[in-house]
């Protein structure tokens, strides 16, 4: 009987730990999502572009370049033309992937641990939407060169990260509270 209580308290501690981890992940990931949103707002206010196709999204068509070292600015008939080489575009794609993919992989691992056996369908749906968003973002940078498609790809990816953090926090909190109540009454 005493061993049963010891095992239950260990389960309670583990679930409480995962609950704390998910809330910390939620705060950190949502902080970064907020900073990315602020960055987007500031770029549009200051008319700072990351790729030539972004000029089409600006209202008056004028923009300042915030490009890398090999971004080229040329003057043609009194207007500035901003170009990116394919190498620059690939570098930006890899930088973006390095920002978002680790978050997804860590959250997917947490899904496997916290929701073992009951999260497969959710994880497949989240993974499919996240993967589609990242692929759309990549295609929008290289062959499509379309700022709106790139924005949609980003929003899909960021939205999935946000949804996963909320989903994990809800489930981990429910497990921790349930284990705590179970230990109180039994």
TrEMBL record:
UniProt EC number: 2.5.1.18
Keyword Transmembrane helix: yes
Membrane topology term: Multi-pass membrane protein
Keywords associated with the record: Acetylation, Endoplasmic reticulum, Membrane, Mitochondrion, Mitochondrion outer membrane, Transferase, Transmembrane, Transmembrane helix
InterPro entries assigned: MAPEG-like_dom_sf, Membr-assoc_MAPEG, MGST1-like
Catalyzed reactions: RX + glutathione = an S-substituted glutathione + a halide anion + H(+)
GO molecular function: glutathione transferase activity
Transmembrane segments: 20-42, 100-117
Subunit annotation: Homotrimer; The trimer binds only one molecule of glutathione.
Similarity-based family: Belongs to the MAPEG family.
Stated role: Conjugation of reduced glutathione to a wide number of exogenous and endogenous hydrophobic electrophiles.
Protein known as: Microsomal glutathione S-transferase 1
